[in-house]
């Protein structure tokens, strides 16, 4: 989650045609620009940060995302860092550990990687004539039937430009959404959890590099997620009755308080110390974005800005890729008819996103059990899973469940 130095992209002749402003240089924004460019549009990307972010945290790209990445031409450029000999353990504060179920033990066939791997793969595929402006944000958006006037601000100076389409791919607290659709409070739905994620400098808690670890307690958890060829990442998740208070003071102080008062033990203590030593982390509340419509006129939202399902769904990157791919397909099909294209895009995509959001709620307990009863149920499941006949039957049932099939379904394919 570092930042590359500010570079200018845009050398070479530029295609002249319909202009699209893409706000945000994350997975959804880069993928959208890539797909629009292949559909004959002239995308211009603006990014608030001074440079492109790198690194990131653990993500899984499921079948829906892999299919979209293949059509975007970037699947081979995003690595699968799943450790071939991985072993996952449930660890206590006292240092006891037992075999447990890790991310890749559950149904589905995700590619495991860092979020930055996907961004890098998509970024590398952008044609050289795609213009990218860093340290730039929209401050005013007005539209009429034929286009959108956007006032962009950089270093205190502003200028207004006209576009045929504006795509807000600027994340959970989207500026485009706020300017066009309304304040964040109308669309953000808090789940009562805080999350923190960051890259570890090396394995911690006495774990080997290929070993994953889970510290699971009612209402709070720590996951250490391994990779084949990279240091692991850590993920904290805990319940809170007062989200706003969590943003006062230093994040490390909030984390230490959330996991107090018992002695931390080696794994948790190492993770907290590593968090305190880095300035490259995610610390935020778990919230879903719920909207009745993802577009208004010629302005459309893609990715977390439109439908954030939370990290608990595991589908953030996959949904961003699929949504971007499908948007380009619908615009290509409808030619200059932008509004019908946006309606067709949303009609096709919305049922799948609704499923991801439901999964995001259901799977909270997989990351952070809320009670001792849920912890006991997880323990029973782990024991039963090892039984040859019964375990295989349970896995078949989970593999064929609608939630899992939805993750693997190629939702952006339109015959």
Automatic annotation (TrEMBL):
Occurrences of domain FAD-binding (ranges): 20-332
Domain of life the protein comes from: Bacteria
Protein's name in the database: 2-polyprenyl-6-methoxyphenol hydroxylase-like FAD-dependent oxidoreductase
GO molecular function, one term: FAD binding
Family matches, as PANTHER family: OXIDOREDUCTASE-RELATED, POSSIBLE OXIDOREDUCTASE
Family matches, as Pfam families: FAD_binding_3
InterPro entries, A to Z: FAD-bd, FAD/NAD-bd_sf, FAD_aromatic-hydroxylase
Species per Swiss-Prot/TrEMBL record: Pseudosporangium ferrugineum
